[in-house]
């Protein structure tokens, strides 16, 4: 039986994989599989997997599952071709390891950031901010602008998803019985959160990828501040007069933060400073600084755990309280998002290894031109998640000026605002404000959002003209 299997593996596998073996070699061992059936199948696998990702809201199948499977299948097919040709190529193994290293750096960076966000959430930092906003008795129009502005300035530090969920909770608590206000406020929050994340290396996964790749320096991202602000302000100004000019009822709800909340916020800022310092001055990967910052939280968590009896006094409780545990905050990280990112990196890396990204880069960046290609990237990110789109651009490595790299960073970050399904913030709010904020309620304001998108690009060309 073993002999039969060995014969099948030695004869049938090459026979199955050999048809159409008109490979053009790129270098010593790299094969061009773009016209081979394995390349077409890999494209089909990725397309089907992404259809499942886009249908997550309806199927309730976590988005990480199909892309992880697709990644394994794509690289399995690639490796099988090389085995059939006469041995395992070192190129395949090196390419997979390279993709894994890129993923590991981003995954660990995001894991630390998520852990800090979860720690601040557990210490009631966000609940306290929400209760303060509710108690102030703002009008609907004031709240519309306040939640938008806060979303714009919080998302560069916290991620846009957390920011949008926090601001939406405020909107629902204050104007939950006014569907018109909730709907338009949610549109504004999504646009503001996505715009705010575009000018900070920490605001979005796409900006983080560009920074960690070393293409754009940390401070250079802030050249996008004014274009990003325009992207938020133009649609907000157009929506302003549609917001009900009414005064909602005021709540006396008060939420006080738990002991250590402010110190955790300070430690998070110190962690960001450490990551930036390690990268800019010591030329170490930013993830090393972030993991060092995780140690700050771990040590402070140890202190909170050892002094847990003080929590009862601080909160006015009698008896024991649950002590702070930093590893429970790690466990609460968005693991589905982190594993989805793994699948995307490996899938796109596989398609790039096959040769499709080189073809795409030639069409987009040589035939269309960098500006047209980068604007198209933003429009595409409204339909397809901006993570694979940006990773594909980074994998193409087009020869562009700093101004063009900032342009694609801007468009990939804010382009998702064109549709409610174009960003994690929009998808999350459709669930949180179900019945009020929908695909079509967002689509109604797409012309205003598109006006902001176009204006932000023009402003970028104007104020950053020297970078092109």
From TrEMBL:
One of its GO terms (biological process) is sodium ion transport. It comes from the Bacteria. It holds the Pfam family CitMHS. The chain crosses the membrane at residues 34-55, 67-88, 100-119, 140-158, 218-243, 287-304, 338-359, 365-384, 405-425, 445-463. One of its GO terms (cellular component) is membrane. GO terms for molecular function: antiporter activity. The keyword Ribosomal protein does not apply. InterPro entries: Cit_transptr-like_dom, NhaD-like. Keywords: Antiport, Ion transport, Membrane, Signal, Sodium, Sodium transport, Transmembrane, Transmembrane helix, Transport. It is found in: Membrane. It is a multi-pass membrane protein. The keyword ATP-binding does not apply. Belongs to the NhaD Na(+)/H(+) (TC 2.A.62) antiporter family. This is Na+/H+ antiporter, NhaD family. It comes from Thiohalomonas denitrificans.
